Every structure is written in C-alpha cells, then in structure tokens.
Amino acid sequence: MLGIFKEKLVNAPKELNSPASLNSSNNKPKLSHEILHNFMSNNSSNAFCMNFGHDALLAYSPLNQPSIHQRLFSGVDNIYCVFLGSLHNLSMLNKQYGLSKGTNEAMFIIEAYRTLRDRGPYPADQVLKELEGSFGFVIYDNKDGTVFVASGSNGQIGLYWGIAADGSVVVSENLELIKASCVKSFAPFPTGCMFHSEHGLLSFEHPTKKMKAMPRIDSEGVMCGANFNVDSQSRNPMMPRVGSEANWATWG
Domain locations in the chain? Predict the structure, then answer.
C-alpha cells in the first residue's frame, strides 16, 4: 500500500527530513507522481489509486499469494482506510460497536474512527489498546483533510514513512519503495504509536510520555532520518477522558 500526503496536510516530525537526501550524488528523492508510478508499475494489474484533489492519495494492491496477514481497503462516508494485518478480537469489537459479523478490519477501523471523531467517548490510545493482533493502518478523512496512521505494538506489521522531493509525507509497508522514493529522509514508523496530521506522533502504549527523535546513521555513516522512541523521563499532559477533545480527530 501507499499513502502520499502533501506538506500542507501533514505536520511530520522535522527530524524525519535528512539534508543528506538533497546531497546524494547517486540518487535524489522522487516527486509524488514518480513514487505513484513506481508503485503501480511494480504491483499487480488490479492495483488502484484514489486521488483526493492535489493534496492526498492512497494506492492499494491486493495480496497475490496467501498470507496470515491481510491487506484490506475500505471507504465509508468519505473516510478511507488501508489496513494490514488481522485482529484476533474482531468479532468482539464488532459486537461492541454494534456492527455486523461480516465487518472486516478496515471497515471496523473506519467505524471506530468515525465514532470517536463525532462523539469521542474515549481517547484514541484507549481504543487502540483494545485491538488484539498485528496491525498497521492509514486513514484519510477526506471530509476533514485528516491523516491518521497507527502501528501495532508487536511489530509484525512494519510501516515506514519518509519525505518526498516536494515535502510530501510518504507511508508504506514497502521498505524498498520508501528507500527509493525518499533516499535518506525515511524511518520505520514506531510500533505502538499513532500519528495525527495536525497533532503529531504519540505512543498509544504510553500516552503520558513524549516521543523522542534519535538520529539514524546508515551503513555509509550518513544521518538517515530518525528513530522515534518513548522518552521515559518526559511527561505529556493527561489527555481528557470525555468530550470531542479526546477523540482521534482532535486529540492534543
């Protein structure tokens, strides 16, 4: 899967962008349309892309071979989700949210996001902690122009993010695509974390702690983006437990 979001939509951590990308003599970061072209060229004929004006796009290709981890795409009420992995407690979650038994993981994530966006009974970290299994997902809310990304705690679904030549944020599970697209300005998306386009990166495992950027050095000794870890010595203000200020759309 592939998500590309223009800089005006996404307030990505500045540490993700490495000056070394522009100084590379052998390779340069690619523009958004070049990244999309590479994705579509290297995936099956049933891959597709959805563009949301000039600001966002999601591209998706179904799995071509059996896997214990699913790759799903869904769109409901102008909210779109690409989901990787599987939730062991999906049946219980569907029952809890009043959804039908046939609701898959991507559809459930959209419904959970929409419920929190509109009614906000619980903060996002509490909802994500209830997800049992391996997962990584990207949501684009076309109504609000909001991007939401999360990666499960067990690390079995690896997501990567980086900065394209035009400053757009690129998200994919394909490490080689991210490397070729963003050169030195990329990093693994931290496990047990969520990212909101307006309010930044937060650990849903440790929501009271801040995230700390640690420079990544590649095999050539060049700074290559940053790893983001929980800063155990820090403390975030407690997130409110009720009201719309606590939901996925407006936390912080």
Answer: 2-230
Select from 15, 10, 7 the least CA-distant residue to 31.
7
Task: Say yes or no to pLDDT of 246 above 50.
Answer: no
Please check whether the domain covering 2-230 is classified as CATH 3.30.540.10.
no
β 169-172/133-141 pair status: unpaired
- pTM value is 0.90
Condensed to tens digits (0 to 9), the pLDDT of residues 203-229 reads 999 999 999 999 888 777 777 888 999
- Residue 233: the pLDDT is 85
Q: What is the DSSP letter of 217?
A: E
Going through the chain in order, the beta strands assigned E by DSSP cover 2-5, 48-52, 56-60, 70-76, 79-87, 133-141, 146-151, 160-163, 169-172, 186-188, 193-196, 200-203, 210-217, 223-231
Burial of 156 (0-12, 13-18, 19+ CB in 10 A): middle
- For 112-138, b/e burial (b = at least 16 CB within 10 A) is bbbbbbeebebbbbebbeebebbbbbb
Give the dihedral of Cα atoms 169, 174, 177, 183; nearest 10 deg.
Answer: 60
